Each structure stands twice: as structure tokens, then as C-alpha cells.
Amino acid sequence: MRVLSCVGARPQFVKAAVLSAELARREIDEILVHTGQHYDASMSDVFFEELSIPNPRYELGVGSAGHGVQTGEMMRRLEPVVQAERPDWLLVYGDTNSTLAGGLVGAKLGVPVAHVEAGLRSFNRAMPEEINRVVVDHVSSMLFVPNLRAKAQLASEGITAGVRVVGDLMIDLVTQAAEGLPEWPEIVQHFGLQPRTYAVLTIHRAANTDDPAVFRRLIEGLHRVDMPIVFPVHPRSRELTIAANVGRDDNIILSAPLSYRDMIALMARALVVFTDSGGMQKEAYALRVPCVTLREETEWLETLEDGWNVLTGSDPEKIARSARRLMPVKQKTHYGDGHTAESIVDALTGATPEKARVTPGVTNGALAAERHVHR
Asked: Which domains does the chain have, with CATH numbers?
């Protein structure tokens, strides 16, 4: 069996680290394609090196652009690769433009698409990620969902065939990375901090970076938080950070993007995490660190239970108030048993790809009664 995996952004590299290792263990030929969506070395190369991800067989080098241009260019460069390789499955992760490009190319060429992290919804169609995940779910032949909530969401949209509840690859990896961490990791010492006395911040989503006024409101709220905040700056936020004089005589400590293991170590010993990232919401939850999500909605509704995560949008008062809430006590297991990669590969190898082929131009809902994807 041959699997073509399409990746392009940090969260996808993290997930691929777990799944690629399992594919290799089963001696399954994986054709790894890097679209180049995250092309900065600190957001790409470091993850491949640190997490021992195989070097991509193809690097499309698309880089940054508007949504339509970037997605279209990815499709243009990916299509001949898929035609040449003719994989049994085209595997995509999450909800980025790389996900959308891979899903559409696979569907149009009649190659069955397997979507890892399917069934999630923020119910905000203004988010580009929401459009991506909805479209890809509706052209996929195999849909790997993290929990029963996601499965029920797909069923409400008429998608029932090929759905597998497998857990979450990011939770598997963060759990492994956190095992054996010292109480005072080197990265915490590097910033001159003590455990449980600081916060960690990331900002990268378009809703928070496209409008400088929104970004300034976020910073205003973070300035009201009475603790140091370590801010590894995403490339998308660099110019905004400079323009707003962030990190000058305030409580925010600027940093270049960190490696995966350093970021997990930093988060694991933090008092609170501020983020607009979907992946970091889950990572904070797995590390049992309270999270403040700088958005009005989340696709990871489970993290809101018992107060582990709260939504503030860009409201400065909410941001400041949420930082010092009481540490939650109860926590449920929502994202699998730590064997997500094995479950995904079991499903892929137990299916009959020939019968899972997608008919170009026909939606997933229309195909629901026609699919023949078996364990």
C-alpha cells in the first residue's frame, strides 16, 4: 500500500511525526509532500529534525500568498505529483490551505482522501479554516475523528460512511514529550523564570493579525496580566509586534519560534496559556494547564468543560480577568487512549481503496449510500 501525505504547517508536522513513524513501522510506503505553507526554518525544518520526520519526497515550495492564490498554486504543483505516484490513499491533516489543496486534488483525480482530524466545527464561516475543514470532510472517503462529538457532527451533515473514532495524534505526542520533564526545564531557566509564575502566548490567526487594531487590543489585555508572558513570535505577527512596541518595558518576553519539545516544556510549567491556536488548546488541556483562547469560538468544545479553557475574543478586560481564574480540578479523557496512529493505520490497511474511490463532482453526502469502505 502507498500513502501520499500532504503537510504544510506546524500542527501537521507534529501529527505526521506520530503517524509517519507508525507507517514506517508497518513498512508502508509513505510519499511525504511538503507544500511549503510554513516555509520559515523555525516553523518547518526544526520540526522535521527534532521529531525525526522523514525528509519530504517532494517540496512544493509554495510559500505565503492570499488564500486563493496559495491554495490554487498548491493544487497546481501537487496534481502532477499525485498523477505520477498514484497512491492508494491521499492523507491530509487538520484545516489549513494545505489540507484543502490536498483534499481537492485527491477528489478530482479519483484518489481516496483520508482526513485526519475530521468532524470539527467552530460554526464560524468567517474563519478560512472552517471552510477548509467542511469542504475536505465532504470529499473524503475515510474520516478520522477525535471523539464521538465529531462523529455526531458528521452524521448531522449526512456523512456516516468511512468515519472512524480514533483519538488525537497531537495528544499522543504531547503526552510522550511531557513524560520525564524536570520540574525546572532548561527552557524555563533560559528565560529566567520559575515554574508556575509565568504565562505562554501565541498569536497567529488571520482574525487577530489582519487588523492591527485587534492585535493592539489583545496586547492591551495581556499588559493587564500581572505575570511575565513568554511570546514566541509567529512570522505572521512579527511586523505587528514591532509596530506595537511589544516587549519593551512591559511584561511580555519576546522569543523566536521555539522547537516542539521546548514549547511543550515551557507550556507544561506555565501558570496559564494564551493562544488562538487550535493545537495549543489541546496541548494545554493534555498538560493540565488552564488556557485562555483569544477567539470568540473554538472547534475544541471539550476543552471548555470544567473551566480548562475560556474564550475571550480580543476583549482586554476578559483577557486580564481570565488569566487568574482558579485552577480546575476535574478533567475528562476526550481524545483517545494514546494509540491513535495505530488505529488510523489499522483502518487504512483494512480498507479496500478500489471501492473507496470518489467519483469526481459528487459530494460526500451523495456518496454516503454508495461507499464501500470496510475495516
From this structure: 2-168+336-367 (3.40.50.2000), 182-323 (3.40.50.2000)
Cα atoms found within 13 Å of the Cα of residue 134, Cβ hemisphere only: 14
Note whether 365 and 157 are within 8 A (CB): yes
SS3 per-residue string spanning 135-190: HHHCCCCEEEECCHHHHHHHHHCCCCCCEEECCCHHHHHHHHHHCCCCCCCHHHHH
Asked whether the CA dihedral 115, 120, 124, 129 is positive or negative, the reply is negative
- Amino acid 358: pLDDT: 44
The single residue of 138, 204, 234, 334 carrying the catalytic annotation is 204
pLDDT value at position 39? 60
DSSP label of 58: E
pLDDT of residue 356: 45
Q: Across the beta sheet with 29-34, what order do the strands follow?
A: 58-59, 29-34, 2-7, 89-93, 113-116, 142-145, 163-165
pTM check: above 0.90: no
Active-site residue flag, 204: yes
For the stretch 192-217, pLDDT in tens is: 999 999 999 999 998 999 999 999 99
Residues of the chain with pLDDT below 50 are 353-375
